[in-house]
Amino acid sequence: MSRELVAREIFGPLGGVLEIAAVRRSGCLVPVDAHSFQSFAVGIEDELAAILDQIESLSRISRCEASVFERLGYAAPHEISLAALVMWSCGVAGMSSDDVERMVVAGSDIQLSRLVQALIFSAPSDEVSANSEMIRRILLGCLRILGRSTEGGLSLVLRIWSASTLPAYLSPTSGASAASKEKVRAYARSLTEEGFTP
User: Fold this and answer.
1) In angstroms, rounded to a whole number, what is the distance separating the alpha carbons of residues 79 and 118?
2) Cβ-contact 17, 145 below 8 angstroms
3) What is the pLDDT of residues 1-14, one digit of tens each?
4) I want to staple 65 with a disulfide (CB 3.0 to 4.6 A). Which of 52, 61, 83, 144 is the partner?
5) What is the rounded CA–CA span in Å between residue 145 and residue 139?
6) Of 75, 58, 62, nearest to 17 (Cα)?
7) Is residue 198 a part of any domain in this protein?
8) 45-74 tens-digit pLDDT
9) Is residue 159 part of a domain?
10) What is the pLDDT of residues 85-136, one digit of tens each?
11) Residue range(s) defining the domain that contains residue 115
């Protein structure tokens, strides 16, 4: 997998987090216009910059590769439509304007889970403990952007990821290599260890 594709696998769900967070900040009213999104983006600028720095460090992607986030336009002023929210929530919470609050919850759970998996895939197989701490800090930053509680929120994200992703990936029929499975198991163990202090 090319490094740019690795970056896209990470920045896709991160973009989903940003758009969902902007909808939540609007009071779950869609569409969110470009001006409102810009105001939201200014308010999370420092948090997002810290997240992006940690992603670069964890995944060892270059500044050039990381610039794909800017090219995708997720942090630039733009409108967020109901269709975008349906996409991020995979349609599991409904598809109408009456379902926006449920889509915000489901979409944030889905995108955070995808982000966990993308971060693990991008991380080196060594220094699992230190890298796991960085993944936790990235997720905590995302939870703050989403306006979700970090008290217990991180554990919930990791439980959803482990329940929704691990069984299929670790299955004998998944096609994943033994080394890749062992790496994911190592990160799963490390990420859920007690003793992490945000």
Assistant:
1) 26
2) yes
3) 677 888 999 999 99
4) 61
5) 10
6) 75
7) no
8) 999 999 999 999 999 988 888 889 999 999
9) yes
10) 999 999 999 999 999 999 999 999 999 999 999 999 999 999 999 999 999 9
11) 3-191
